[in-house]
Every structure is written in structure tokens, then in C-alpha cells.
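Re-run with default settings, no changes from the original entry. Doing this only to confirm the output is reproducible before filing.
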Amino acid sequence: MRCVSTRGADSGSLSDAIATGLAHDGGLFLPERLPHVAVEGETLVRRAVSLLAPLFEGDVLAPQLEAICAGAFSFPATTRWLSADTGLLELFHGPTAAFKDFGARFLGETMSRLPRASQTTVLVATSGDTGAAVAAAFHRRPGFRVVILYPDGRVSQRQAHQLGAFGDNVRAFRVAGTFDDCQRLVKQAFSSDLRARQALVSANSISLGRLLPQMAYYAHASLEALAAGRASPSFVVPTGNLGNAVACLMARAMGAPIDRVVLATNANRVLPDFLATGRYEAQPSVATLANAMDVGAPSNVERLRALFPDVAGAVRADWVSDEAIRGCIRRTFETFGEVICPHTACGVEVLHRLRAEGVKGDFLVAATAHPAKFDTIVEPLVGRAVPPPAALGELLARPAHAEPMAATIEGLTQALAS
């Protein structure tokens, strides 16, 4: 399987695309086609192998795909039905309590098996969850160092602590700006001579190695629903940079039994506006309670448009205010006894609106992070403590340190050189 750039100028093997991260013409890599797959197996690992095997066919990594998936999908993606037709796809059971753990560990497993410079720098911009997942995936891996850029003051206290708690080969920088500034700096680095001088690889959702494995848990959950005697489920996907949502759409395009795909955003409403008007216009990002989705220029819009020219026919989107997020967290706890994070609440609120419109059928909301990561928001709304899972508690018990950085390419150059 060859890979192509969304801008048309690059092509190469899947391994090349994963190792390169961002295409040399500035575009994002995609498989040259999405083959239809009859996904087989009963476990998440086996289904991931079955779904991804055609994309890895003929690639140097193909013989190792099963081992890669076993290393990446070593924790569950659990479907839990809250009512007869509404459930959560719990994606937060990994080491950093967020869905990003799946893609980050897959990337770590693939990158460690590919030829590379003796010292490779994994550069990642994060709006909250990606950085910790990438740090965990590459922590103490020989030959790698991780450089995390996050917007100072725009992630939760526990997210910030996670980002600075790894040490060793992981360094965190708190950037004086927004996530969009962090993302812009990463793209600038890959478009400059820094890429070669520092042996940079990308770990954001611009990386195909992050995106492809995220298809697996959607295929797995939809097949689990069918095995339980349900019809093909629909998914509501909370999204910021759009990688998780594009992965769901790709899984459906490759044959996973998925009905509708609905996107939920916070007040950063670029995607709903784009689908409503047909015009994509990046906007300055707005700080919200669902901070990991505070993205005003989602990178994966480029993949979305390249894969699905009729975007409005492929997906629907809606946005949720902070007030509605708070109300949804309260209502979900009162109705189901379930505590959810602000990002998951965006998805649950959008589904609530669909039900009010009379939309029927089985829906799963992607529960993207454990609510304990957002304790200062969630606990006052539900009136109880939300203890962190064991792995998160372990990280929070460590000392943490992050260095300040200006939101300039000069600041990043200095950080990478230090």
C-alpha cells in the first residue's frame, strides 16, 4: 500500500509516511485507497490486525503488525450501555487515562521498529491529553527523546502535572500562547532545516501512525454491538483536531458496521460552521472547559476534505457551550449515576439534542478521558470526589516540571538545541 499527500506531491510506503510524519509539501499523508475489509477476530487486538493488515500489505512492518497491535492495544476499549439505546465507548483505560494512549502506543511500537537516527526527537503539540500519551509511549525508549509543547494555563492542573512528571527522556515546555500556536510551531519545524538537524518525527494526529490505529476501536465496538444482537451503532465523537473523528469515518469507509457519525465540539465551532456553510475558515481558539478540544485550526480538516469530498453527506456536527457542558455533567450523573469528563459531555449533550429531534437507533458516545483528569470542574458539579485510576494516581504522585517557552520558532529552536 502506497501513501500520498493530501496536497498531491508526495508518495511512498506506509513506513515512510509514519517515519516522516508531515509530507514534504506540507500536506498530510493518507493511504492511496481505503480497501473494504471483512474484519475478523473476537478481540480488539485481532480485529485491529485484521483491519490494518491490507494497509500494511507489502510494507517492511507487515510481518510485525501483530506484535505492534499487541503492544498498542494492551488495555480495553469498553462499551458500556447506560440505557437501551445509549452507551459510552470508554477509551480512557490506558496509562494516561485518555483515548490518545491507543494511537501513541501504536506509534511508539512502529517507530521503534523502523530505521532511524541514533537519537530521534519526537515533537508533539498538545491541548492536554496527547502530550502525556506520547510521553508514556516513548518514556525510556532507547534512541528517542520527547519534546512536548503545551499552551501555558490552558490545560487542567492534572494534565499539566502529567506532562511534566515523566522526566528522563521527556521534556515539557509551557508555551506562551494557544494550542494553535503550539501546532503552528510543530508544522514550522517540519518545514524547516530543523527537521533534518534534530531528526524530528511527529506524534500529533498529523501522523498517520497515530491516526490509523484509532480506527480499530470503532470497528471493535461496532462488531461488539452486532454480536450482542443490535443493529449497526452510530457514534458521537467529541473532537478538536479532528483525528479521532476522521479515524471513525475511515473505519466506516473500510467496512466497519457503523451507521451515522456525528461530531461534537466545544465553543471552537470551526467544524460545525464549515459543515453548515461549506466554507472552511480557521478561527482564533477560545478557552473552554473542554480544553483538549480548544482548536481553532483543526489539522485533519485537510484529510477530511481529501477523503470525503461530500463532507456534509458524510458527517454531521454540533457545538456545545460551557454552560451546556456543566448542565450535561450534572444531568448525566443524576440520570445514570455516571461521572463524565467535559469532552465526553460535549458528545452526550449533542446526542441529547439528537434525541430531542426524534433521532432513533443505538448510539455510542466516545468517552475520551477519565473525569478525574478534570477534578476541579467535575467534582463541584456532581458533589463527590472522583478518585483517579491507579496509573494516573501514580503520575500525579511524581514531581513535575515544565520550562517556559516563547511561541516563536526561535524559542522552539533554542528548546530543541538545549
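The first strand starts at residue 2 and ends at 5. The CA atoms of residues 344 and 367 lie 5 Å apart.
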